[in-house]
UniProtKB/TrEMBL annotation:
Full protein name: ATP phosphoribosyltransferase
Domain Histidine biosynthesis HisG C-terminal: 210-281
Subcellular location: Cytoplasm
Listed cofactors: Mg(2+)
Pathway linked to the protein: Amino-acid biosynthesis; L-histidine biosynthesis; L-histidine from 5-phospho-alpha-D-ribose 1-diphosphate: step 1/9
């Protein structure tokens, strides 16, 4: 069976489970379950701390895993991303009391508190900045108030928690992160496991496409078909079928979900009618 590591808690857990469910895989029913077997799909899921997943995958004990790009880099494990998943996006930034620092050069001689010591230490070293890094688990916003550090480095989504703590971000982002599928670096291809790995990746890619696109159907006059097709080119090309009423055709094409309303307006303006969109639950490209 294909052995896959999945986050057992935190911001990665719920979205990862939802995506796996949409991809047709069985998921655990209770949060206490640490391992389940999906015999139909020949997959075994292990629910682990997100920070540990890269370590398990790099050891070769598990074939692949879902974790955050930030957690992979921070771990220093010999694993590499093979598919970005588009959720749990975040930006890693420095923050301090207003006026305490404006650029990364201002960190020289200062102490930086973070839960991501590996990322921060490497970033400072790459920039040639001599600063101390203190590792803290959990929220690090109070580190400055309690005198543990002058600066913190943390994941920033909206920045609300930092502002509530009287802090502000400064300098360029350290890195941007999102959920990814990882595999051991330089892993020897197992002839038995590789087809299952590729099938797993295709299923997740199908979910990503299904979430990004909608199916659009509409009717239009033949003389307006070229203008309509220019608005809805589809992936290869749209499907066009003649209608019973002479001079009319039915068109079907996949369009980006975020542009669907604008496209419907444009189609209506050139004379298309009976325009509708439907969700895509699964696909293979």
């Amino acid at each position: 069976m294909l052995r896959i590591a999945v986050p057992n808690k935190g911001s990665l857990s719920g979205p990862a489970a939802d995506m796996l469910h949409e991809a047709g895989y069985q998921q655990r029913r209770e949060s206490k379950e640490l391992r389940i077997v999906d015999p139909v799909n020949e997959v075994e899921f292990f629910y682990l701390r997100p920070r540990d997943i890269a370590i398990y995958v790099s050891s070769g004990r598990l074939d692949i895993g879902i974790t955050g790009r930030d957690l992979l880099i921070d771990s220093g494990a010999s694993a590499e991303p093979i598919l970005p998943l588009g959720f749990a996006r975040s930006t890693f930034r420095f923050a301090s009391k207003p006026g305490a620092a404006n650029t990364i050069a201002d960190l020289k001689g200062k102490t930086v508190a973070t839960s991501y010591e590996g990322i921060v230490a490497k970033h400072l070293a790459d920039k040639g900045i001599d600063a101390s890094v203190v590792h803290l688990d959990g929220a690090v916003e109070t580190a400055i108030e309690l005198g543990v550090a002058e600066v913190i480095a943390d994941v920033v989504e909206t920045g609300t928690s930092l502002r509530n703590a009287g802090l502000e971000v400064f300098g360029e982002p350290i890195m941007k992160s999102e959920a990814i599928v990882i595999r051991r670096t330089g892993a020897d291809v197992d002839e038995a496991a590789e087809p299952k790995v590729q099938q797993f990746l295709r299923r997740l890619q199908g979910v990503l496409v299904a979430r990004t696109y909608v199916m659009m159907d509409y009717d239009c006059r033949v003389e307006q078909l070229e203008k309509a097709v220019a608005l809805t080119p589809g992936l290869e090309s749209p499907t066009v079928s003649p209608l019973h009423n002479e001079g009319w055709v039915a068109v079907r094409a996949m369009v980006p979900a975020k542009e669907a309303q604008r496209i419907m307006d444009d189609l209506y303006d050139i004379g298309a009618r009976a325009i509708l969109t439907t969700a895509i639950h699964a696909c293979r490209l």
